[in-house]
Amino acid sequence: MTKTEELLKRLQRAQAGGGTEKAKAQKEKGKLLARERLDLLLDEGSFRELDALVETKGREFGLEGKGVPGDGVVTGTGTIHGRTVCVFSQDFTVMGGSLGLAHAEKICKVLDLAVRIRAPMIGLCDSGGARIQEGVESLGGYAEIFYRNVQASGFIPQISAILGPCAGGAVYSPAITDFVFMVENTSFMFITGPEVIKAATGEQTDFESLGGAHVHATKSGVAHFTAGSEQDCFRQIQELLGYLPQNGEEKPLRIASSDNPSRTSPELEKICEMDSKKPYRVHDVIWEIADAHQFLEVHKGFAENIVVGFIRLNGESVGVVANNPKHLSGALDISASEKAARFVRFCDAFNIPLLTLVDVPGYWPGVTQEHGGIIRHGAKLLYAYSQATVPKVTVILRKAYGGAYDVMSSKHIRGDFNFAWPGAEIAVMGPQGAVEILYSKEIKTSKDPEKFKQDKVQEYTRKFANPYYAAQRGFLDEVIGAAQTRPRLIQAFECLRTKRVEPLKKRHGNIPL
Ligand code: HXC
After folding, report:
1. What is the separation, in whole angstroms, between the first and last Cα of the chain?
2. What fold characterizes domain 3-241?
């Protein structure tokens, strides 16, 4: 055998992973193989593998003499739309993709590389968790990954795709990363599985209803995106990356837009003129404003009372946060506050300007919310907006009541440009509630309480339920016609391209976690 032949033989052995039988079993579960996944995710022919010949280090419990080249994870670099990314893809055919020491070291090595070259890191997860035979070494391996995820956080974008099991502490690496994708029916995430839960609490559940894609995308908020297939998942990751910079020191790419920056939107006037109690989907506003009407929604099924995601305005990537009157009247609650706060912090870390569309009647009332800590969780959004130094432009579409007015990127917490549509209502509370509190005694003693109330509601509406009281005080920079929203926003963000704010020098703030 020549030296070259020997190399090829070794590489072939590494590429075989757990062998044909295991590969067949993987396919029967409706899952792709680790290398097939990378081929679909990355630009054709761009993958360069690293550490293919690294072998399993464990020697106990049947692992002696079983050194598997690659140790159940494929790592390397590649490109997506021509831009470099670092990747790992766990190979379930090798000991269930379980994480042993060598496996962990490979992930750490490629993550260190991603930080050095300032490129996004994408992890494709399909693993039975800590490799039982390697004991504390695999636990330590996980912790080394977690530590690196944290150091890289805000420095390079980190994305996790869950394409199979992800159990125990293994879920914490994806949880620290910026975006978690899950594939319906084949992926699941949980700390303790159905069996342990049954033994500990007596609750009956199964993998899917405990930690499947749907549950995490709608109830827990762990998953930001779900996909119907692995192919769909990779397509979505590619789309997401298009809105992001390579790292926190760069700005996202500007993509030439064929959509006219001066395009006006007469349709938005209908929403502006609508009865203020009537619900509408804020998506209609976002689509109308965005280049080519395209909006990549993040966390679509979770806390639907607030909508977050990415659009382009005249080719520039912009993060959108918008109250959605279609759900809970657009009020802020615990989940909405957390969802939006995390998104704001992501955009701020990666130089993505923020557009806030406000239509909020206040915080969602209730004992569950109060006891669940809405004070603490609601403060996260306030903190995130106040801390964000990227360009911030706010448009009050309709209601901006109470503390929620302050929180939603108001002038007072350093919105750069704050606009309102002419139908905006900005006050401590709605006219009805305000009159009932201010005139409770008078209403009781009045000869015609209904008429008294109506007169006072009208007076309050005239004075406060409009944008002009705030505009007169400079709390709004401009009241704009709804149809002019897109061109005005494009001008505003263009003007803010050179914005620079130096934060106070300190170790770090203390966000109310
Ligand atoms: C070693 C493992 C393994 C593990 C699976 N395998 N998980 N080997 N360590 N953690 C092996 C199996 O023995 C089997 O080997 C092969 O992978 C495929 O597993 P199957 O069970 O046949 O596959 P499937 O039916 O699809 O079930 C997948 C599974 C199940 C749901 C993941 O294997 C499972 O429950 N595994 C244990 C999960 C777990 O409890 N992990 C530890 C979590 S604690 P053969 O040779 O038969 O093919 C943890 C701590 C992290 O991760 C701490 C960080 C702080």
Report:
1. 61
2. 2-enoyl-CoA Hydratase; Chain A, domain 1 (3.90.226)
Give the pLDDT of residue 421. 98
Q: What is the pLDDT of residues 386-398, one digit of tens each?
A: 999 999 999 999 9
pLDDT of residue 64: 79
Q: How far apart are CA 363 and CA 375, in angstroms?
A: 10
* DSSP-assigned letter for residue 176: H
Mapped onto helix, strand or coil, the DSSP state of residue 227 is strand
Instruction: Return the residue matching tokens 């020491």.
Output: 101
CATH 3.90.226.10 in the chain is located at: 3-241, 266-428+465-498
Angle 465-471-477 (CA atoms, 0-180°, nearest 5)? 130
Query: 22, 26, 31, 98: which to mutate for ligand 1, most atoms within 8 A of CB?
Result: 98
Phi, psi of 354, rounded to the nearest 5 degrees:
-115, 130
- Greatest Cα-to-Cα distance within the chain, rounded to the nearest angstrom: 107
Residue of 67, 140, 301, 403 with catalytic role: 403
DSSP E strands, 138-258: 158-162, 165-167, 179-183, 188-190, 225-227
∠ CA 173-176-182, rounded to 5°: 70
% of the chain with per-residue pLDDT over 90:
87
List of residues 6+ apart from 28 with CB closer than 8 A: none
Residue 67's pLDDT is 73
DSSP calls for 229-279: SHHHHHHHHHHHHHHS-SSTTSPPPP----S-TT---HHHHHHHHS-TTS-
Give the atom of ligand 1 at the shortest distance from the alpha carbon of 207.
31
Ligand 1: lining residues by beta carbon, under 6 Å: 95-96, 98, 128-132, 139, 142, 165, 167-170
CATH placement of domain 266-428+465-498:
3.90.226.10
